[in-house]
Write a structure and sequence with these properties.
133 residues, alpha+beta, four-stranded antiparallel β-sheet
Length: 133
């Protein structure tokens, strides 16, 4: 086989293969760049969420908002112990309506619930709650 006769065809074939390799390399680079961009956007979104949670949990007014849990039920049905950023509250003989109000208030606050025990005794409920913030 004489290569001189097919020199132009071999050159065209080699350049076509080289062009295909460059095309696939370019596509791979574009897709990896898009994936990296998506990952960076996801990390920025998570970072912003962490900052928002930190602001909510570090709110100075949260200390006063926790005191609103005292006003939900009468003082005769509860024992209240708040030291620093920890709260221990025991509620006895709560009606279902009072329990729902109390849980709604508690769940809407930015506090970490360490322990929550709710026990039913007859038609009423007893609740023990320990939280910190």
């Amino acid at each position: 086989m004489n290569l001189k006769n097919y020199r132009n065809e071999l050159l065209v074939g080699f350049s076509f293969v080289l062009m295909l390799m460059a095309f696939f390399y370019k596509n791979a680079q574009i897709s990896s760049q898009a994936e990296q961009l998506f990952a960076v956007k996801q990390e920025v979104r998570e970072f912003k969420e962490i900052i928002a949670h930190k602001r909510i949990w570090g709110d100075k007014g949260l200390f006063k908002k926790v005191d609103k849990l005292k006003n939900v039920v009468p003082a005769s049905k509860m024992t209240w112990n708040k030291k620093g950023k920890k709260l221990t509250a025991n509620y006895k003989d709560l009606t279902p309506k009072e329990l729902n109000k109390l849980m709604a208030k508690l769940m809407s606050m930015a506090v970490q619930i360490v322990e929550l025990n709710i026990k039913k005794s007859g038609d009423n409920y007893n609740m023990e709650c320990k939280c910190k913030w």
